[in-house]
Amino acid sequence: MKPCVVTSSDAAALLLGRLLGPELERRVELLDGRSWLNAVGRARAMVREGANVALVLGPRKRRGPDAHEWDKAYAYSLLNPSAERTGPAMRVILLRSAPEGLLFLEPDILRRIAGHEPRPEHLQWARGAPREALSALLGVKPATLAKALRPRLEEVDLMPLASRAPIRRLRKFIHAQIQRSERRTSEAISASEPR
Questions:
Q1: What is the 3-state secondary structure (H, E, C) of 17-59?
Q2: Which of 48, 115, 128, 183 registers the highest number of CB atoms within 10 A of its CB?
Q3: What span, in angstroms and rounded, lies between the C-alpha atoms of 122 and 136?
Q4: DSSP 156
Q5: How many whole angstroms separate alpha carbon 193 and alpha carbon 188?
Q6: Which domain of life is it from (predicted)?
C-alpha cells in the first residue's frame, strides 16, 4: 500500500508533491482534504483502514502564543479520540502557515512563480492567509489556484524549500513507510515460495 499524504487543499497537495521530488512523488498518494477538519477526518479514516498517513497542515484560525501546540493537540485528539496507540503508520506535520505559505519563505522562488515582484500587501496578507495571498499574487481565484500553479511549479527549482525541516521530516517518514512496505512485500513473496 502506498503511503498517503493528506493536506488541506489541492494546491497544497500539488506543492507538497513537487517538494517531495520525482523519486517520491510517484510512490506516494497525495490527497486533498478540502479543509483542515476534513483533512484530519480523511487521515483518521485512512489510518483505521491500515494506511500509512502523513497529515500536513497549516494552523487553524486560532491565534496566540500557544496556537501551534493547541492545533497539534487538537489534530491528534481528532485522529485518535480514544487515545489508543496508533504506532508508526501516522505522522502529523503542522506547519507555521498553510503549505502554500512555504512559497513565501523563499522570495526568489515566489518571484519566479508569479513572474513579478510580490507587493508588500501580498507578503503581509500571506502571514494570515497564504492561499488567498498566493491566489491574488497570481491573479486567480482560490478555487483555481492549483490549476494556475501546476505549470509554474514545473519551471522552478524548489530545492531551497525541499531542504526545510518540515519537508525533510515528511520525506523521512515516507522513506521509512516505503521501506516497510517493500520489506513486507518481499517477506510475503518469500513466505509463499515453495521450499
A1: HHHHCHHHHCCCEEEECCCHHHHHHHHHHHHHCCCCEEEEECC
A2: 128
A3: 8
A4: S
A5: 9
A6: Bacteria
Question: If you search the block for the grid coordinates 511549479, which residue do you land on?
Answer: 153
Domains of the chain: 4-99+157-192 (3.40.50)
Question: H/E/C letters for each residue in 119-139?
Answer: CHHHHHHHCCCHHHHHHHHHC
Residue 98's closest CA among 134, 140, 144?
Answer: 134
Per-residue cell: 92: 502529523
What 69-78 contacts at long range (C-beta under 8 Å, 24+ apart), as own/partner pairs, is 75/40, 78/37, 78/40, 78/41, 78/44
The reported pLDDT for the residue numbered 3 is: 87
Full-model pTM? 0.85
pLDDT at residue 155 tops 80: yes
3-state helix, strand, coil in the chain (%, to 5): 60, 10, 30
- Identify the H or E element spanning 9: none
Cell of 127: 502571514
Please report, for residues 5, 12, 79, 84, 89, the alpha-carbon distance to residue 17 in angstroms, rounded to integers and kept in the order given.
9, 8, 23, 30, 19
Assign residue 29 a region (left: φ > 0; alpha: ψ between -120 and 50; beta: otherwise): beta
